[in-house]
Amino acid sequence: MSLAISQRGQDMPVSPFRKLAPFAEAAKQQGKKVYHLNIGQPDIATPPSLLEAVRQADIPVLAYSHGAGTDSYRRKLAGYYHRAGIEVTTDEILVTTAGSEAILFTLLTCLNPGDELVVPEPFYGTYTAFAIAAGVKIVAITATIEDGFALPPLAAFEQVITPRTRAILLCNPSNPTGHVYTRSELEDLLGLCQRHNLYLLSDEAYREYCYDGARATSALNLPGGEEHVVVMDTISKRYSACGARVGSLVTRNRTVFQAAFRFAQMRISPPGLGMLLGEAAAELPESYFDENRAEYQARRDLTVRRLQAMPGVQCPVPGGAFYVMAHLPVDDAELFGEWLLSSFSYENQTLMLSPASGFYQTPALGRQQVRLAYVLNLHDLEAALTCLEQALLEYPGRTLAPQVLEVAEAHV
Amino acid sequence: MSLAISQRGQDMPVSPFRKLAPFAEAAKQQGKKVYHLNIGQPDIATPPSLLEAVRQADIPVLAYSHGAGTDSYRRKLAGYYHRAGIEVTTDEILVTTAGSEAILFTLLTCLNPGDELVVPEPFYGTYTAFAIAAGVKIVAITATIEDGFALPPLAAFEQVITPRTRAILLCNPSNPTGHVYTRSELEDLLGLCQRHNLYLLSDEAYREYCYDGARATSALNLPGGEEHVVVMDTISKRYSACGARVGSLVTRNRTVFQAAFRFAQMRISPPGLGMLLGEAAAELPESYFDENRAEYQARRDLTVRRLQAMPGVQCPVPGGAFYVMAHLPVDDAELFGEWLLSSFSYENQTLMLSPASGFYQTPALGRQQVRLAYVLNLHDLEAALTCLEQALLEYPGRTLAPQVLEVAEAHV
Question: Which residues of chain B does A1 touch, with a Cβ-Cβ cutoff of 8 Å?
Answer without folding.
Answer: 197
